[in-house]
Amino acid sequence: MAATFAGPSTVVGLCSTTSLSSTPAKKTGLSSGFLKSRVTARNPLRLAGASGGKFTCFERDWLRRDFNVIGFGLIGWIAPSSIPAINGKSLTGLFFESIGTELSHFPTPPPLTSQFWLWLVLWHLGLFVTLTFGQIGFKGRTEDYF
Hints:
The chain is an all-alpha fold. The chain has helices at residues 2-6, 67-81, 91-103, 115-142, and strands at residues 29-30, 39-40.
């Protein structure tokens, strides 16, 4: 039985002599009932597009930076965070007050138990959330998503 497996053999259907030859592979065409013309399958990594011959995954201006969003987002966060809602004080006021307190002993950094870190994290978290939703809303409106 071992002698029958020792010799070279071919498996029908997996290999043919024509596929091993040096003839170039022919391009496969994709067709669909929804498409009227035939589309040739292409490798997107080999396409030289408008990016100067380099393949890029994202648009050049993927951030789509707009200074209106930054301005309105900053105003949109400072206004509500300046409402005195925490024991008669605002979040912005508490944050700026803690900055002044920590600057009074400047060379020494604020301790980890300082309220400065709480106000810093809360104030900036609110700012970044507001800027993110502002970017989504402003760009969604200008690009007709809603």
